[in-house]
Amino acid sequence: MTAVVAPPTTDGLSVRGLSVRFGGLVAVDNLDLDAPEGRLTGLIGPNGAGKTTTFDACSGLNTPSEGSVHLFGNDVSRLGPPARAQRGLGRTFQRMELFNSLSVADNVALGREAAMAGSNVLRQIVASRHEQDEMMEAAAGAMELCGISDLADRRASALSTGQRRLVELARALAGRFRILLLDEPSSGLDHNETARFGDILERVMAERGVGLLLVEHDMSLVMRVCHHVYVLDFGKLIFEGSTDDIRDSEIVRAAYLGAEEV
Ligand SMILES: Nc1ncnc2c1ncn2[C@@H]1O[C@H](COP(=O)(O)OP(=O)(O)O)[C@@H](O)[C@H]1O
Ligand SMILES: [Mg+2]
Q1: C-alpha angle 180/183/257, rounded to 5°?
Q2: 60: left (phi > 0), else alpha (psi -120 to 50), else beta?
Q3: Are strands 25-36 and 12-22 parallel, antiparallel or unpaired?
Q4: What is the mean pLDDT of residues 210-222?
Q5: Which atom of ligand 1 sits closest to the CA of residue 183?
Q6: Does residue 142 sit within a domain?
Q7: CA dist., res. 19 & res. 67, Å (int)
Q8: Relative to the CA of 50, which ligand 1 atom is closest?
Q9: Ligand nearest to the CA of 183
């Protein structure tokens, strides 16, 4: 019997039949996943399940052995990271560093600069006055959205973990991407900070209409903000559905949640 594979969607990120190998290890195994614009999609699973490897494959940082990545209906599987960024795909990294000696505003503006740089090598060297204005404007909008405008002039080295996470999110938003991959963006936050982070993700969705694909270990955040959730285990998709479906799923409970109440 031939497996029926859904065609890629045209309104965001689509992964079809994706496999990534490291030597003998199959880190991602025949994965299908969609992250549409205007929706918050979750990607969860235990450590080593293949979440970051999936993000790397989406943004062009590794070479899958099989499968395709589409952005808004176009096959980007053979394009490098800058070309994918130009087509609207941005991301944060699991352990992304801010530049401690720079101000918050400059750290955030770098997100816009990086997004623009991909399209023209010269821009990395000479930004026009207009581009500089545009960068600062994008940074101001992103800081406002994340509620950190009052920190604009603060040096990154003086921030708390909670503030750093918001600056990282603002930096990604300054790139004005249409789809954003967020890898454990709330790591290190306490309960209240995580709740506030969730509020900001919802506001980003409402005001920008971007699609967010969220790798997140905090299940209360996932259950609260995600429309649709994919569950990976040992590289394989073991479940996908709404948060209600996840809550009711025996497979997810057994493989991932254990006895934890969600
Ligand atoms: N560059 C690499 N070389 C070899 N193995 C890797 C590499 N990156 C990840 N892996 C392995 O692939 C699996 C998936 O890793 P990863 O995608 O980082 O998981 P997650 O983000 O879900 O915790 C793990 O077994 C990990 O050890
Ligand atoms: Mg990871």
Answers
A1: 120
A2: left
A3: antiparallel
A4: 93
A5: 21
A6: yes
A7: 6
A8: 17
A9: 2
Q: Check pocket membership of 95 for ligand 1, CB cut-off 6 A.
A: no
Residue nearest to atom 7 of ligand 1 (CA): 22
The amino acid that residue 180 corresponds to is L
Ligand positioned closest to the Cα atom of 31 = 1
Structural domain count, the chain: 1
Q: Is the CB of 12 under 6 A from ligand 1?
A: no
> By alpha-carbon position, which residue is closest to atom 4 of ligand 1?
22
Q: Is residue 165 part of a domain?
A: yes
Percentage of the residues of the chain whose pLDDT score is greater than 90: 69
> Which has the closest alpha carbon to 51: 261, 240, 237, 177?
237
> Of residues 181 and 6, which shows the higher confidence score?
181
Structural domain span for residue 107: 97-176
Per-residue pLDDT reduced to its tens digit, 93-117: 766 678 999 999 999 998 877 666 6
For ligand 2, the distance from its centroid to the CA atom of residue 231, given in whole angstroms, is 13
Position 238 in a domain: no
Contacts of 240 (CB under 8 A, 6+ apart): 33, 228, 229, 230, 231
> How far apart are alpha carbons 53 and 181 in whole angstroms?
12
Mean pLDDT for 58-67 is 96
**What is the amino acid identity at position 152?**
A
User: Domain for residue 140, yes or no?
Assistant: yes
45 lines ligand 1 (CB under 6 A): yes
Whether residue 121 has pLDDT greater than 60: no
By C-alpha distance, which of 5, 10, 30, 8 is closest to 20?
30
Tell whether ligand 1 has an atom less than 6 A from the beta carbon of residue 192. no
Question: Nearest 5°: phi and psi at 248?
Answer: -85, -5
